[in-house]
User: Fold these one by one.
Assistant:
Number 1:
Amino acid sequence: MSDEARYPYFGKPPPREPRPASEVPALRGKRVILSTPDGFVYDMRAISQIHRDGEGREIIDIASEEHYFRWMFTQAAPPTEAFPAHLVWVE
C-alpha cells in the first residue's frame, strides 16, 4: 500500500522541533521540556508567561501535566516551580 493510500489528505504531519520558550509568544498551557543537570524532563506544562523574579532572572512557572489538568477541571491552584526561562523548551 502506498503512503498516499495509507495517509490521505496531507500525508504524515511534519516532525516538530522543540523551540526555546523565549521564541513562543503565548506560553501558558503549552507542553514544555525542562533541561536539567540529570537530563530532559517531559510531560510538564507552562503555567505562566516569562516573567522576572526578585533578582531579575527570567523565569516561567511550571507544573506537571497531571497538576495542570487537575487545575483546569477543579480550579484548584497547582503546585508550581519557577524554572529559568533559558532552560525551557516548547514541544
Note: The chain has a mean pLDDT of 92.
Number 2:
Amino acid sequence: MLGRIQLTLMIGSAVPVPVPQSVLDSLTSVSVTTTAGTTASVFELQFQLSKDSSLQTLFMLAGGAGLPLVRVVLVATVNGTPEVLMDGVMTTHQMTPGADGTATMTVHGEDLSAVMNYIDFSGIPYPAMPVEARVLLILAKYALFGVIPLVIPSPFMDVPIPIEEIPRQQGKDLAYIRQLAEQVGYVFYISPGPAPGASVAYFGPDIKVGVPQPALNVNMDSHTNVESINFSFNNDAATLPVMFVLNTLTKVPIPIPVPDISLINPPLGLIPPIPKNIEPIEGTAKHSPIRALLYGLSSASRSRDVVTASGSLDVLRYGRVLKARQLVGVRGVGSAFDGLYYVKSVTHTIKRGEFKQSFELVRNGLVSTVPMVPN
C-alpha cells in the first residue's frame, strides 16, 4: 500500500492469479512504458531475493523451462479506482548477484501482442476480404487471452476482387496486421483493461480527439501537479508528404501533395508549422488510389507534430493515472505552449512509497485553440 495507491500483481499461464505475499514482499520496483502508435508496451519487474530463495528457481521455471507462456497483469488502484497498467507476457530474465548474499532478479516482458509473434501463418488465403475482415479473423484466435478486437472500418473500403487478387498472409500475425495497418494509414496496438484479464486490440486511425484528461498545472502554487516539464518547438521537423498515384492509362506516377486535413487529427495549436521539406511517400504508387490516400493522410498527421513536451509527475499529487494515446491539458506555462496536447508516451515507475510517471506530449502548432482546458 502506497498511501492511497495499491499495487496488484497477477502471474499465471493462460489465466493469471494474484501472487503470494512472499513474492509481493520481494518486489522492489515496477516500470511500465506505453507509447502511441504501433509500438508494443513493455514492463520490467525487479525482485530482491536471497541466494537460497526458492523464488529464483520458480521464476526461472516460469520463464520458459516449465511453462511456454507466463502472463503478467499489473493493476494500480489510485484513490479507489483500479487501472490496469499491463497485461502481457514474460520474455527475458536477468540475475545480478549482490555482495551481501542477495540477488536482484529483473523480469522483462511485453504486452499481449508478443503472443501474436510466435507462429508463422504464411500462406493463409483471405479471398474477397477487405483489410478489416482479415484483421478480425486473425484476432479471433486470441480470444483465449481475453483480447477483444476493436476494428474501425476504413471510410474508403477496398475489397479485392478474387479473379484479380487473393490476398495471402505473409509472416506472423503481428507483423501481418502491422503491415495491413500501414497500408490503410492505421495503427495497431493492444491496450490492457478495462478489467484485469481483458485487453482491447485496436485497429484504426490514430485518433487525437476526445475528452481531455485533468490538466497538468505548472507554476500555480498549491495547484501545481507536475514535478518538471520542458517544451520544444522544432519548425524544421514539419514536412509536406507527397504521395504518388499511378495513372492507369500512361503508367506514369502522378505526385500529389497531402495536406493535414484529417478530422481525427484536428489542430491542437492555433499557429500551425510551415513545412520546409518535401517528403515523398514511397510505395503508394503500387496501391489503389484509396489506399494511397489513407496512407498519405496518416503520414501528414505525423509530420506536423513539431511541438513536444516532456516531464514527470507524482501520481498522488495528480490524483489519477495519466494515460497515453489520449489528450491532456497544460496550463501555467504561457500563451505559446498552454492548451491541449496528445500524450505520446507514458512510463509508470512504482517503488515502495512512491508512484511516478514520466511523459511525452506532442501537438501540431503553437498557441492554444481552446480558451481554457478542463481541470
Note: Helices lie at 21-26, 54-65, 131-139, 173-183, 289-302, 315-318.
